[in-house]
Amino acid sequence: MFAPIAPMTALPIEPLLPALLASLRQHGCLVLQAPPGAGKTTRVPLALAAAEPWGQGKILVLEPRRLAAKLAARQMARSLGEAVGETVGYRVRLDSCVGPRTRIELLTDGLFLRLLQEDPALTGVTAVLFDEVHERGVGSDLALALTWQAKQLLVPDLALLAMSATLDAEPLAQLLGGAPVLSSSGQAYPVQTFYADRPAPEQPTVAAIVDQVRPAIRRALAEQRGSVLVFLPGQAEIRRLLEQLQDLPEELELTPLYG
Length: 259
Prior knowledge:
2 domains, single chain, Rossmann fold, 259 residues
């Protein structure tokens, strides 16, 4: 069985975990609503792995994107003080990092469907978690339907958990046999809105977007304390903005993030 989890930074999902585990033991199927930042992606799989009966087998977590699977695996492994591929691993197209001790595996729906084709009974798997289930696609919908069918016909003890930040949970819960719905609060912070001094460009080219964002960043750095998080449409805008901000003081670290 999975070793007890070491103390970690508390997240909003934590108080809900005992009720989640109890409900999953009773019903075998559950829909979880939790806003971004609640901790559902990383804390729920670890909680299942530390509890009976799910810790006796493998827990699969389906992510809508390869990058999300890798990042979530790294975060969970880091929280355990381990490297990816030990207790927590991932499998995505053209890349995998799992080992003989792996008990939590993050993967995309395509690889999961292939796994279902090879082993419809999901031998050795005790729980399947569908993360960000509101990001619907043909593959994810099919994976959820086939997992529900496998639970009904082949592995009634399999735990099935659908997690989302924004999905209308009740219709999905009804499709899953009247599964209970649990909701978690998120992390809320006071937000103050400032408006740009000039209107947005009529033609949102890369150059025009960067021209709008660059002075806003400089203003934020001059008037506020802390870090600045900038959302841009794509990699081209990110690269161009980085080039435009190279004259900022050296103590400021510019870090591009994708995904």
